[in-house]
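Continuing the batch. This is chain 6 of the set; chains 1 through 5 are on the previous pages. Same settings as before, nothing changed between runs. Recording input and output for traceability.
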Amino acid sequence: MANGKSGTWRNWAGNVNARPVREATPASVEELSDAIRKAAEDGLKVKAVGSGHSFTATAATDGVLIRPELLTGIRRIDREAGTVTVEAGTPLKRLNAALAREGLSLTNMGDIMEQTVSGATSTGTHGTGRESASIAAQIRALELVTADGSVLSCSETENPDVFAAARIGLGALGVVSAITFAVEPLFLLTAREEPMAFDEVTSRFDELHAENEHFEFYWFPHTGNCNTKRNNRSAGPVAPVGRLNGWFEDEFLSNGLFQAVNWLGRAAPATIPSVAKISSRALSARTYTDIPYKVFTSPRRVRFVEMEYAVPREALVETLRELKAMVDRSDLRISFPVEVRTAPADDIALSTASGRESAYIAVHMYRGTPYQAYFTAAERIFTAHDGRPHWGKLHTRDAEYFAAAYPRFGEFTALRDRLDPERRFGNDYLRRVLGD
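Output for chain 6:
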C-alpha cells in the first residue's frame, strides 16, 4: 500500500494517498507509546494505518504514519471467559485461521478478511446477522494508547465511558494496541446460495430475515435478478465446496471473469446492461457446510470504490426499491451488484447500528470508472431514510449531519475533547465528520 521510494501511502482502492513526514513500525506497546510521544514533541499529527481497505481518508496523515505489522499475534486465550486477546495489527485472516486451529471462532464477521482487527473494528466493519452484530460489538476489552503516550485499558468495568466509544473510534481517540474479543467453540454453518427475483426477495424480505441467522443478497442493476445467501448453524457433517467448483465460481467467475467484464464495461459502458443480464445468471444454486470464516468470507480481487449506508431495517425495502427505480430511469451504467445485509441494534456510540435494528445497502463502482453521479443519487435516497454512512466508505456527510443522526454523538466528541484536546490524531476527514 506504500511506495517506499516516494514515501507515498495509498489505500487499497487507490483513491486516497498521503505523504507522511515519517513512518514508525513499533514492535510493542512501549514502542508505540514512544512514537506517539516523539510525534508530540515534534508537533506532528499521528495516524495508524491497517490494510488500507477503507475508502475514506480516515487514516491519511502528513505527520507520523504508524504501521502495525509488527503488532501481531494472539496475546492470550481465556477459554473459561470465552475471550481472545490479540495485537491490533493482526490481519483478520490470520486471526480466523489461528482461532480455528484452537477450536474457536468469532460469532460473526464481514465478507472480507484482509483488514487488521483494529482497522476493521475502528471503522465499524460488519457482516450480516439477525442477532449477531458487527465485529466491534464482539469486543470485550481494548487497550488504547492516548495522545500523551499513556496506555489505557478499557472494558465495561474499566474506563467504561471510553469503552462505549472506542470500539468504533475512527482513530480519533488514540491508537488501539490490543483487542479482546468474545469467542466461542468452533461451529459449522450451512450456506444456501440461490438466485431469486428482485420482486420476490423484497416482498419476502421480513420472512427471509426472520427465518435465517444470517441473510444477505445481491441485486444486479439493470436486471430484476438477485443472488441470495442464507447461513445457519449446522450439526454437520462438513461438506465444503468442492475444489473444482470452488475455483470455478469463487475465482474464475467471481474474480477472473468479473474483472474482464468490468474492463469491458469501463471501455464500452453501453454493453453493461446486456452483460449484467448474462452475468446475473452465471452463479448457480449451491449448498455447502464449513467452519465460519470459510462460509462468511470470500476473496475479492477486483478493486472498486464503495458507498454503504445503514437505514432502519423497516425502511430497507422501500429504500432499495427507490434505488432500483432511480437506476432504471437513469443513464447510469452499473457493473457491480448492490449488496444488502442486516444487523441488530448495539450499544456503541458511533456504530451505524447504534440503538436501532439496521439494514445495509452497499453500492460499488469499478476502480477507475466515474462513480460520483451514481453515489450522489444513491446518497440522496439513503439520507432521505435517515441513513448512516459506513465510516470507512465514501460519503459526503459532515458533523452537523452526524450530530442529528447519532443520539450519542455529543458523548463521543466530548470524550475526544478530553482524550485528545490538541487533535494529535486528527486529520481533514475527522475534522469534517466530527467537527473541531
